[in-house]
Specification:
By secondary structure, the chain is an alpha/beta fold. It is built from 6 helices and 7 strands; from the N terminus they run H-E-H-E-H-E-H-E-H-E-H-E-E. Bound molecules: S-adenosylmethionine. The site of S-adenosylmethionine has 21 residues, from helix 2 and strand 2.
Length: about 180
């Protein structure tokens, strides 16, 4: 199980409003849809129509189609589209496995989306960011995520960087941002 799912399972509750900021093939969207249940909503963002189609198909197959809003737009427009508070936001950076590597998340838009995600978080809510550094621009993007996360006020947010100790420094890692519970 991806480490991000441990944090999300801990915090996301039935009826919650949550966001998959990079839905890709829909694995995280389906997981979130399971957690929020029939009364909840998952906004699934991607800039590739093929990703949204794959995510829609995955949710329909799981019987969760009615739990998601599919958004063909960059996550840098998050706050424009999701206007109320949310319990969790998932970022899985990089490129879509099985598709071309030319469509990839980028440092500036990722940073803009992270700022909006943190601003939308409910107390106790979490933003999870899976960071991949192996592709062109990945290291720079990871540095941007860390710089942003490290600059968050400790009075308002708890922030962790989680790395596997038995993998190389180039392995993917997770950044988790929790809004301090009320
Ligand atoms: C690593 S994949 C996500 C995989 C996904 N979590 C899954 O379960 O299959 C990253 C995705 O981010 C998307 N993406 C790139 N830039 C984006 C942006 N500005 N806003 C939203 N999605 C973006 C890509 O199209 C790609 O599908």
């Amino acid at each position: 199980m991806p480490l991000a799912h441990f944090f999300l399972r801990e915090r996301v509750r039935p009826g919650d409003r949550v966001v998959d900021a990079t839905c890709g093939n829909g694995h995280d969207t389906a997981f979130l849809a399971e957690l929020v249940g029939a009364a909840g909503t998952v906004w699934a963002f991607d800039i590739q129509e093929s990703a949204l189609a794959a995510t829609k198909a995955r949710l329909a197959a799981a019987g969760y189609a009615g739990r998601a809003e599919f958004v063909l737009a960059g996550h840098e427009r998050l706050a424009e589209i999701v206007t109320g508070p949310v319990g969790g936001v998932v970022f899985n950076l990089g490129f879509l496995p099985g598709a071309g590597k030319e469509t990839v998340t980028s440092p500036a838009t990722t940073r803009a989306a992270l700022e909006q995600a943190a601003a939308l978080l409910l107390p106790g809510g979490v933003v999870t960011v899976a960071v991949y550094t192996g592709h062109a621009g990945g290291l720079e993007e990871g540095r941007g995520v860390e710089e942003w996360a490290a600059g968050l006020s400790p009075a308002a947010f708890n922030v962790w960087r989680c790395r596997q100790m038995n993998r190389s420094d180039a392995a993917p890692y997770l950044v988790v941002v929790e809004r301090v519970p009320a």
